[in-house]
Design goal:
Blueprint (H helix, E strand, L loop, with lengths): L4 E4 L5 E4 L16 E6 L5 E6 L4 E5 L7 E3 L2
Antiparallel strand pairs: 1-2, 3-4, 4-5, 5-6
């Protein structure tokens, strides 16, 4: 799986599309807004950081819910 398209909205929602799917994937990630997004080399993971002080790691070909690091 390679990196796809993504968008982050001011309400903290992150939406992304992987190259092998036309259906968007993503949910409300950060309740007070998303500050940063980055794809890991190879495109397997998407990492997000938010105003809530949390970092979330999305495995793009894995489980739907991200792994969350506490603030």
């Amino acid at each position: 799986v390679g990196a796809g398209d993504w968008k982050a909205d001011g309400d903290g929602t992150i939406t992304f599309w992987t190259p092998d799917s036309s259906s968007p994937r993503g949910t409300a990630a950060h309740p007070r807004g998303t500050l940063a997004l980055a794809f890991a080399p190879g495109g397997r993971f998407l990492v997000s950081g938010g105003r809530d002080g949390r970092v979330r790691v999305w495995e793009l070909d894995g489980p739907k819910d991200p792994t969350t690091a506490p603030p």
